[in-house]
């Protein structure tokens, strides 16, 4: 009985880890996952992601240290509280995993 529970736990953990790796395997997938978890599923699926040339050129030294790159959403979601556009995101690379965070309008 104990081996069956342990086997199910291992299968569950491996499945969760595989899903996490798939959702963070590329910069665009990590960015779409972040937008989805922020509560904007339509934008996560429909927006196009383009290279944010302005921020990447202006902050190239800082981004090189962070192992990061800025991206812009072409059809950004509108934040409900402030009615601001969530347009710019920073995607950092950790090994073979990418993680995205909102960068703001700086």
Topology, pairings included?
Layout: H1 2-23, H2 27-37, H3 41-46, E1 49-51, H4 53-58, H5 60-66, E2 68-73, E3 88-94, E4 97-102
Antiparallel strand pairs: 1-2, 2-3, 3-4
Descriptive keywords:
106 residues, alpha+beta, four-stranded antiparallel sheet, globular
The main β sheet shows up as:
4 strands, antiparallel
Side-by-side strand order of the widest sheet: 1-2-3-4
- Which parts are unreliable, with pLDDT below 50 for 5 consecutive residues or more? none
- Beta content: 15-25%
Radius of gyration: 17 Å
Strand segment tally: 4
The H-and-E topology, N to C, reads as: HHHEHHEEE
**Count of spatially separate domains:** 1
Number of helices: 5
Inertia-based shape: globular
Please identify the structural class as seen in this structure: alpha+beta
Mean pLDDT: 91
End-to-end separation: 57 Å
Q: Provide the helix percentage.
A: 40-55%
Overview of this protein structure:
The protein is built from five helices and four strands; from the N terminus they run αααβααβββ. The protein has helices spanning 2-23, 27-37, 41-46, 53-58, 60-66; strands at 49-51, 68-73, 88-94, 97-102. With 106 residues, the protein is of the alpha+beta class.
């Amino acid at each position: 009985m104990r081996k069956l529970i342990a086997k199910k736990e291992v299968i569950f953990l491996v499945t969760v880890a595989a899903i996490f790796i798939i959702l963070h395997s590329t910069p665009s997938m990590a960015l779409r996952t972040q937008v989805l978890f922020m509560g904007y599923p339509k934008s996560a699926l429909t927006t196009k992601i383009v290279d944010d040339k302005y921020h990447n050129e202006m902050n190239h030294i800082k981004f090189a240290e962070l192992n990061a790159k800025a991206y812009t959403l072409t059809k950004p979601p509108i934040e409900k509280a402030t009615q601001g556009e969530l347009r710019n995101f920073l995607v950092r690379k950790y090994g073979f995993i990418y993680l995205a965070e909102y960068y703001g309008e700086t």
